[in-house]
Amino acid sequence: MSMSMCFSSNLLTLHSPKHQGLSISFSSESSQFIKLFQVRSTPYALPSSSFPRRLYEPLNFSRENKLKLFASFTPSEAVETATSTFRNKTPKDINVLIVGSTGYIGKFVVKELISRGFNVIAIAREKSGIRGKNDKEETLNQLKGANVCFSDVTNLGSLEKSLSDLGVSIDVVVSCLASRSGGIKDSWKIDYEATKNSLLAGRKFGASHFVLLSAICVQKPLLEFQRAKLKFEAELMKEGEGNDGFTYSIVRPTAFFKSLGGQVELVKDGKPYVMFGDGKLCACKPISEPDLASFIVDCVLSEDKINKVLPIGGPGKALTPLEQGEMLFELLGKEPKFLKVPIGIMDFAIGVLDFLVKIFPSMEDAAEFGKIGRYYAAESMLVLDPETGEYSAEKTPGYGKDTLEEFFERVLREGMAGQELGEQTIF
Ligand SMILES: NC(=O)c1ccc[n+]([C@@H]2O[C@H](COP(=O)([O-])OP(=O)(O)OC[C@H]3O[C@@H](n4cnc5c(N)ncnc54)[C@H](OP(=O)(O)O)[C@@H]3O)[C@@H](O)[C@H]2O)c1
């Protein structure tokens, strides 16, 4: 159960109990194999007077918005605001609410919004980041330049109360929320419910545009988190069909760099590069955090991205795991050394897990993680051409300038800090 209270001086601090996910540990020998299957895997507030001022970021709303700041909002006023357009305002007069602001992509979206001059209201948990490792001060530091609001996206009432206490109107909501575990219940709680809460709360306070960070893999939904995302996508699209001018942009990126960097340090240490089948079962056009953040922020104002589903990859050609491995060995100046694992091993493991779930229902997340691993081992993160039913690199748009090769070089030099996958290790 979560609770919420609000600060009167424009700051909210909320905390909700951490989701306790299943954690599976392995010996160091198996770590490289496991890295192939790693997936990504809260709120009470107190009156502001009891908190040191230095913990708060000043609200930097424009003059016009300051006038709105303390206006009490009613739903009818909010609807009126929703029908008016924000697109003819300059960024400094546009209030952007971002949820999932502390995630791998969310942090970069906050930075990009700020650098383009928007007023950013970033919702965060008091303990943010992987396994809640960042305290409030660290979170404020990470989100410097934004008006940080500690609230609970999983609780609509708390979220609305937080926004009401802030007294601001919202023009645009950007969601970079995602379940940190990828577990079944957590996916529905975050990728669907919490994301929907941000839509409802944003709408109530005037939002007329919603930018959703989704994933390209939802085009072939076999996993629970994909179904949860798709359900929200469908509801968002329906919302865009109304006649009050509400619009959306759904961004479906291919693979992130962090998802492809898990073997870099191991290969550097002399281990083989592990891949499934012949290493050509899947391909992707990886995109960096800053490039994706830039694309997402383009969606705030670009007219040509209104009411669209936007698959997006990084620059350059699509890369298979084999090509990624070859690239890595070339950068290291080493002779390629591959370990090819039959994909059937995954099917066997999933079969065993599915059987065990029937006896031990509490293992449902473990079985789901197995399916997630299988999915990413065999499915390309490219546009699925409806005409051919095949993945198409040509039909997958590229954006940005950062390449996987530069990323590998950086990891070889500096390690994987900041590129951790999440809260779960699965097999
Ligand atoms: N990995 C890939 O290659 C890839 C490719 C394409 C698309 N995607 C999609 O991109 C999206 C974002 O990924 P990401 O890596 O940036 O995600 P992430 O780093 O796991 O960040 C998730 C965000 O959601 C918040 N969140 C999670 N559970 C929460 C809870 N119970 N209460 C409040 N906030 C919660 C987190 O807050 P805290 O910091 O407080 O935990 C964080 O801000 C996902 O939808 C993913 O499916 C990923």
Outline the secondary-structure elements.
Blueprint: H1 31-35, H2 63-69, H3 75-83, E1 95-99, H4 106-115, E2 119-124, H5 136-142, E3 147-150, H6 156-166, E4 172-175, H7 184-204, E5 209-213, H8 224-239, E6 247-253, H9 264-268, E7 273-276, H10 289-301, E8 308-312, H11 321-332, E9 338-341, H12 344-359, H13 364-378, E10 383-384, E11 391-392, H14 404-414
Parallel strand pairs: 1-2, 1-4, 2-3, 4-5, 5-6, 6-8, 7-9
Antiparallel strand pairs: 10-11
The protein binds NADP nicotinamide-adenine-dinucleotide phosphate.
NADP nicotinamide-adenine-dinucleotide phosphate is lined by residues 19, 40, 42, 100-106, 125, 128-129, 153-154, 176-180, 190, 213, 215, 253, 255-256, 259, 422.
Organism: Senna tora
Pfam family, one: NAD_binding_10
Main location: plastid
Task: Explain what the structure shows.
This protein is an alpha/beta fold. The strands form 3 sheets. It has a 7-stranded parallel sheet with strand order 3-2-1-4-5-6-8, with helices on both faces. It has a two-stranded parallel sheet with strand order 7-9. The protein has a two-stranded antiparallel sheet with strand order 10-11. 37% of the residues lie in helices and 11% in strands. The longest helix is centred in the middle third of the chain and has 21 residues, at 184-204. β10 and β11 form a beta hairpin. Residues 1-83 have low confidence and may be disordered. The protein has a domain at 42-257 and 286-312: NAD(P)-binding Rossmann-like Domain (Rossmann fold, 3-Layer(aba) Sandwich). α6 packs parallel to α7 (184-204) and α7 packs parallel to α8 (224-239). The structure holds NADP nicotinamide-adenine-dinucleotide phosphate. NADP nicotinamide-adenine-dinucleotide phosphate is lined by residues 19, 40, 42, 100-106, 125, 128-129, 153-154, 176-180, 190, 213, 215, 253, 255-256, 259, 422.
